[in-house]
Amino acid sequence: MNADKSKRNWLWFGATMSVVLALGVTLRFTQRVEPSGSLIYDIEKYRTVNPKLIAYTETGSINPTLKQIRAICIDRNDRIYVSGANGVQIFNANGEIHGQFSVNGVPDCLSVGRDGKIYVGMRDNIEVYNIDGEMVDVWESLGGNAWLTSLAVTTDIVYAADAGTRVVWGFNRKGKPVIRIDGTGIDGLGDVFVVPSPYFDIAVTDENSIWVVNPGLHALEKYRSNGALITSWERSSFQIDGFCGCCNPSHIALMPNGSFVTSEKGLPRVKIHGPTGELLCVVAGPEQFDAKVTGLDLAVDSNGRILVLDTAMNKIRIFERIEKRELK
Description:
Elements (H helix, E strand, L loop, with lengths): L2 H8 L45 E7 L8 E4 L5 E5 L2 E5 L5 E6 L6 E4 L5 E4 L4 E4 L5 E4 L9 E6 L4 E5 L4 E5 L5 E5 L20 E3 L4 E6 L4 E6 L4 E6 L16 E4 L5 E4 L6 E4 L5 E6 L11 E5 L5 E5 L4 E7 L7
Antiparallel strand pairs: 1-24, 2-3, 3-4, 4-5, 6-7, 7-8, 8-9, 10-11, 11-12, 12-13, 14-15, 15-16, 16-17, 18-19, 19-20, 20-21, 22-23, 23-24
C-alpha cells in the first residue's frame, strides 16, 4: 500500500476532538507510527503520580527472546503467550519457556480459546495454531485496508478489532465473518468508532457481549453481539483519573470483579478503573516507563497479577498488589 493511500485510510476527523488530526500512518509490520509533532503536548507535569494512588509493585519480569514484541495473552492454565517478529513464545506462570513456534511477520494481536487453539492476528487475517505450534487453519484476508489490532475469543465467536476499517468483526470457528460492529448501533444512528491510529482494543465479558475501546473519544463501550450498545463510559483528562492524547486507552484487560486495567501511550501509565470508569488505583506511573514507549499490552492471570508488555524494554513486567494497600 503506498503512503498516500495509507494516509487516507487513517485520516479521521472526530467531532469531539479539538484539533485536526493530520496523521501519516506507514503500513508496515515492523512499526506503529505515532501522531506528528503538532500533536505533542506539554505533559511533563503529569509524569509524576501521587504515591498514595499506587497500589501495585513490580515483582518480576519475563524476557522473551523474540524481537519487536507486540502482543500478550494468558490462557486458562495461566500460560503466557507473546508475539513478536516471526514468532510466538509460550511461558508457564513462573516465566519458564513452555514452547514456541514461527510465523511469517509480526502479529499485532493474539488470543487463546478454551479449546487451546491459538489465534494469531496478522495484518489482514487470522492464523490458527494448536498448542504444539502447528498451523491448523488460515482464514481469508479482510482486504488491503484491514489492520487487526486485538482479538478476543468466546466459545463460538472469535472477535477481531480492525483499526483499518474501524470495525469489530466476529468470526465463527470456520473463519467466516458473522458479526459486524461499527459503533452505530442496531438502528444505525450511533457514532462510529474514532480510531486515529492503529490502537483499537477489545475484551469479552461473557458469551453475548464485548467491550470495545473507542480510543478517539477516550471511551469504553459495551455491545451485544448484534451491535446494540449496552452501556459506556468515557474519561477525557490529562489528570490521572482520565485519558488524554489522540487515542487512549491503547489497551485494556478485564479483572475478575469487572474492573478494567488500562494502559496509555504518549503519557505511559497503567491504572485500574471500576466498572463504570471511576479510578480505583494506579498500577504503574509514567516515571516507570520510557517516555517514548508505544503500546503497553496487558494481561491478568488467575492470581490477579498484572502483566505489562513493555515494548521499549522488550520484556514482560509483572505487577502485584501491595498487600496492605487496598483498592478504593
